[in-house]
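Structure record:
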Amino acid sequence: MPSFTVNVKWGKESFKDVEVNTDEEPMLFKAQLFALTGVQPDRQKVLCKGISLKDDEWNMPIKSGATLLLLGTKEEVPQEPVEKPKFIEDMNENEIATAFDTPAGLVNLGNTCYMNATLQCLRSVRELRDALKEYKEDSSGASGLAGLASPHAITMSMKSLFEDMERRNDSITPVLFLQRFHAAFPSFSQTGENGTYRQQDANEYWSELLKMLQQKLPAQKLSAEQGVKHSSFIDQWFGGTFDVQMKCTEAEDEPVSKSKENFLQLSCFISTEVKYMHSGLRLRLKEQLTKMSPSLGRDAVYSKTSLISRLPAYLTVQFVRFQYKGKEGINAKVLKDIKFPIEFDAYELCTPELQEKLSPVRAKFNEVSNAEVERTLKGKNKSKAELEKEKPKTIPQPYCFEDDLGSNNSGYYTLQAVLTHQGRSSSSGHYVGWVRHKDDQWIMFNDDHVSPVDQESILKLSGGGDWHCAYVLLYGPKVLELPVEMVDKEAGGDQQQQQQGTATTGENMSVD
């Protein structure tokens, strides 16, 4: 092995008998010199008989006793910080939560992941948090066990839990809230052979919880002059309306019946041909069913067509992933991969009348988008920092119709929360909540384990295997950000600050 001992001269300092192994890369020798002198390898120039040593080749004559000349200066040694840095592996859960500004997690009380995931998703709705803060104690309510099981008791318990989660960023044990809900819905408190609570269906829990809030949280007013159009906060912010037409396919002369149906969520049906959420939603809008025909005097096939005539600000979409299998006695899960979008446009699902009402705001979205494309093209030779600096200041616009607080005036939505299920049936497996935090950053709520994830991880929740599958999606309104110049032009400089029905993207939709 060609190993030598050489002398190295560096400024006024000399180093005797430095070992050199020419079987190794020259960078290893430079690393030795770095240990002796503090000169970084990329700042070193090693000379022998006028030849400069390369990083990847021994291009100079080396023999024992030779003297090498080292040129280069070492960097200043950084001062030790007053407060020593703490690494993630040395932090406890509270310190990690503080460092990453992560919200509070919820302790699993024994197969209560369905409850924890649902609460985390619903808590992402700023208006719901505000409505619960304003909710007052009701002294006229029932007492005893009936009082503990009342919608008022559950609403008050949810109010207290959310306030507790806002004050803290460590794990919270939601015992009181669970007890109140079990008192109202004993079926959710069933236990298995080992005495632990049985797993429950998260979408069923989501629906029952909204029904309880629906009875107690009052609708909000857009202004003192305008009345209330809805019976509750839930109907106002989560509720939509279908215009429904029923046509008998076996009796052409029978008049088409028209009606309205309210909904708190849309259903995405999964079939062999469905690959995307949008096509699964369209299946729900055109159905065939059998019912009594008054003109034929017997059961007949009817075609049912539904179109949305009122879009809520917050749109809930449920993937119909569970199908009951009689032989096994379980709700088996459909694992098929169904792609869902981060940005969702509900325009095609709406009635022509609602589409016409949505058009003005949609036109403004297009105008802003075109202006942004034009600005980018003009600045194609500029750096990203320069473009960001030149970006015009914007003002968030109302996302509700002026006469309908809690509605959506554009049809555009942004994905805000995802509730996933991992497992093969609704009576087993595990539920997790995923909530948008800020911009493209998300938070995974795996009970009391809370961690940040990126948006790419969210898109992988579409299913297709035993990984977490999207089960319930919560879309929030996409907010129109108008440049100040455009606002001044439209309003003549008289821009009123909207206090309700407006929001800023990211921050107001975050869960903290």
Observations:
- The longest strand covers residues 298-310.
- The radius of gyration is 32 Å.
- The chain is about 30% helix and 25% strand.
